[in-house]
From TrEMBL, chain B:
Short name of any one Pfam family annotated for the protein: SCO1-SenC
Organismal lineage: Bacteria, Pseudomonadati, Pseudomonadota, Alphaproteobacteria, Hyphomicrobiales
Keywords per UniProt: Copper, Disulfide bond, Metal-binding, Plasmid
InterPro entries on file: SCO1/SenC (IPR003782), Thioredoxin-like_sf (IPR036249)
Signal peptide (residue range): none
PANTHER family documented for this protein: ELECTRON TRANSPORT PROTIN SCO1/SENC FAMILY MEMBER, LINALOOL DEHYDRATASE_ISOMERASE DOMAIN-CONTAINING PROTEIN
Keyword check for Disulfide bond: yes
Keyword Metal-binding on entry: yes
Binding sites annotated in the UniProt record for Cu cation: 75, 79, 163
One Gene Ontology MF term: metal ion binding
Family membership noted in the UniProt record: Belongs to the SCO1/2 family.
Superkingdom of origin organism: Bacteria
SS bond list: 75-79
Protein name: SCO family protein
Length: 167, 202
């Protein structure tokens, strides 16, 4: 039954649910998208990160290919690694595969989305629009919640972000 | 039954064993030091320019401890995170953090112009200085810290930089004291920075 949902239908549903969805979750076909978030950027930052969780509830693999945003030149999937003291980052041009039943998390210091050449500064508390693109589930419009510059995980799971406060 | 002679022999061989053991373990310690210190020889000359336009060199930094790390603005993850966390730690240290200099050395001077860096650095503790140079000066700075940076071309004519990620802690004489790792517990990082501020060591 789920298979019958077309990306277009889900897109429309998610748009309808958009403003009311305080939990900040979305779905596209068999994919659940949990809390897209980003971090405040320094002025003139040529790039900004984007993070989210994608769960595949269907029976087939899908591939996350990145997306687009009205306020960035491109939105790409990148991977950061730290090995032998050297930090590296690579675009994952083939995207990220999400197997059936699997949850893939895009997070700081790991696989993440990169907003390239954002046309505005990402400010804490604001939302950034983007459209995510999947090989099978198609496109889905989401909003990235901008958190503090040093945030390490989504605010929903972490409400005691360190800002220099001594425990 | 053990004779006096053999007891002596035993004693001698015990001493010999201790000596040999000592030598061996000493040698092992040395070998180990050599192995675990790929950062040896850090602290050569470099000449760069700060985002405020001031000349910054290994010589101009003498007289005050400093920390330095490599990064670039087209890096969405580790560089702004390091800068932010450093800002946070320096805020907690307060005036104590005045006792050391803090440098972000750009590994991407082609894109990180002085103007871009000066706007970028406004997001962080004003005591952190971003420095850049020509490609040659940048390579010299990398070599001074035994650090690496490599340009990697990506699709669409863009590129990224692989680079050494840790923070180098240097004393007031420009001698390497140790590394600060942003993955260490916060208390450890604060302790290292306090130590750097107080005695110039890590």
């Amino acid at each position: 039954m789920k298979r019958l949902f077309t990306p277009v239908l889900m897109f429309t549903l998610s748009l309808a649910a958009g403003p009311a969805a305080f939990a900040h979750d979305y779905s596209a076909g068999d994919l659940q998208i949990d809390h897209p978030w980003s971090r405040a950027t320094p002025m003139v930052a040529p790039v900004a990160g984007g993070y989210l969780k994608i769960t595949n509830t269907g029976a087939e693999s899908d591939t996350f290919l990145g997306g687009s945003s009205p306020i960035a030149k491109a939105v790409e999937v990148h991977e950061s690694t730290l090995q032998d003291g050297v930090a590296r980052m690579r675009p994952l041009t083939a995207g990220v595969t999400i197997k059936p039943g699997e949850t893939v998390e895009l997070a700081p210091g790991a696989t993440h989305l990169m907003f390239i050449k954002p046309t505005k500064v990402f400010k804490e508390g604001e939302k950034v629009e983007a459209t995510l693109r999947f090989e099978k589930a198609g496109e889905i419009k989401v909003e990235f919640a901008v958190q503090g510059m040093g945030a390490k995980q989504p605010a929903e799971n972490e409400d005691h972000q360190g800002h220099g406060a001594t425990p | 039954m053990t004779s006096i002679y053999s007891r002596r022999a035993l004693f001698r061989s015990a001493i010999a064993a201790l000596l040999v053991g000592g030598l061996v373990s000493g040698a092992l310690v040395l070998a180990n030091m050599a192995e675990t210190e790929p950062t040896g020889g850090i602290g050569g000359p470099f000449e760069l320019t700060s985002h405020r336009g001031e000349a910054v060199s290994d010589r101009s930094l003498r007289g005050r401890p400093y920390l330095a790390f490599f990064g670039f603005t087209h890096c969405p993850d580790i560089c702004p995170t390091t800068l932010f966390e450093l800002t946070d730690l320096m805020k907690e240290l307060g005036p104590q953090a005045d006792a050391f200099n803090a440098l972000l050395i750009s590994v991407d001077p082609e894109r990180d112009t002085q103007n871009l860096l000066s706007l970028y650095m406004e997001a962080f503790d004003p005591r952190i200085i971003a420095v850049r140079g020509t490609r040659k000066q940048t390579d010299q700075a990398l070599s001074a810290f035994r650090a690496t940076a490599k340009r990697v071309d990506t699709e669409g004519g863009s590129y990224t930089m692989d680079h050494t990620a840790g923070i180098f802690l240097m004393d007031a004489d420009g001698r390497f004291q140790g590394m600060l790792d942003m993955h260490e517990p916060r208390e450890t990082r604060l302790k290292k920075l306090r130590n750097l501020a107080e005695v110039g060591g890590a």
